[in-house]
TrEMBL record:
NCBIfam families in UniProt: PRK01222.1-1
Homology family: Belongs to the TrpF family.
Pathway: Amino-acid biosynthesis; L-tryptophan biosynthesis; L-tryptophan from chorismate: step 3/5
Protein name: N-(5'-phosphoribosyl)anthranilate isomerase
Reaction(s) catalysed (UniProt annotation): N-(5-phospho-beta-D-ribosyl)anthranilate = 1-(2-carboxyphenylamino)-1-deoxy-D-ribulose 5-phosphate
Species assigned in the record: Pacificispira spongiicola
GO molecular function: phosphoribosylanthranilate isomerase activity
CDD domains the record matches: PRAI
Biological process, per Gene Ontology: L-tryptophan biosynthetic process
Keyword terms, alphabetized: Amino-acid biosynthesis, Aromatic amino acid biosynthesis, Isomerase, Tryptophan biosynthesis
Superkingdom of source: Bacteria
Domain N-(5'phosphoribosyl) anthranilate isomerase (PRAI): 5-208
Length: 213
């Protein structure tokens, strides 16, 4: 089965067009001011306008309030909302009902115990996303180029599709897919030349690697 590939944290048209041209299934826009990938609403609206219908546009939020979600959705054509903070299951369900968008919940993993909540989120969310627990001194809860022990996900199923994230690069994504059987993969830092600056050549290399599995 084809592995879904998401390129997250896009901030400029060249990178967005590269992600689309080289075959991303999902593209991500970050609405979290402390992130070097944070994007202004009007810029996001312009980038989302470049995305063809067959590609899913995902907005990434960290513990967003309703005002932020409504402000973004009033201007930006998003298909899905990725929640990367400490959002409880009820909040995910509430946002799904309020917005009519798909909701993806990021679960931060260090070891197998961190997967315990996944089944509860899978009951209300459309996809799960497994990312590494951020280091103690991190300034953001994701996008830290940190990988975790992928073996905890080996052969796991959760009732909804899931994405493996955290420190994935053009060099390691093939082994990550082979080891975990992940139905989808997501990268941000691994296809950048500097924090927040996507590199079209790395985007191509990542997507080529995913397709070669
Ligand atoms: O990218 C960010 O700055 C970010 C900020 C806050 C929460 C999540 C963030 N990124 C997401 O984290 C994973 C893994 O990223 P990486 O490949 O390790 O850089 C991915 O879903 C990013 O979109």
């Amino acid at each position: 089965m084809k592995t879904e590939a998401k390129i997250c944290g896009l901030t400029d048209p060249a990178a967005m067009n590269a992600a689309i041209r080289y075959g991303a299934d999902l593209v991500g826009l970050v609405f979290f001011p402390p992130s070097p990938r944070n994007i202004a609403v009007e810029d996001a609206a312009m980038l989302a306008g470049l995305v063809p219908d067959h590609v899913v546009t995902v907005g990434l939020f960290v513990d967003p309030d309703d005002e932020l979600i409504d402000r973004v959705l009033s201007r930006v054509k998003l298909d899905a909302i990725q929640l990367h903070g400490e959002e409880p299951v009820d909040r995910c369900a509430d946002l799904k009902n309020r917005t009519g968008r798909q909701v993806y919940k990021a679960i931060k993993v260090r070891d197998a115990d961190d997967l315990v909540s996944a089944d509860r989120y899978a009951k209300v969310c459309d996809r799960l996303l497994f990312d590494a627990k951020p280091p103690k001194d991190a300034t953001r809860p994701g996008g830290n180029a940190e990988a975790f022990d992928w073996t905890v996900l080996e052969g796991r199923k959760f009732g909804v599709p899931w994405l493996l994230a955290g420190g994935l690069t053009p060099d390691n994504v093939k082994s990550a897919i082979r080891m975990t059987g992940a139905p989808g993969v997501d990268t941000s830092s691994g296809v950048e030349s500097a924090p927040g600056k996507k590199d079209p050549a790395k985007i191509k290399a990542f997507l080529d690697a995913v397709r070669s599995v």
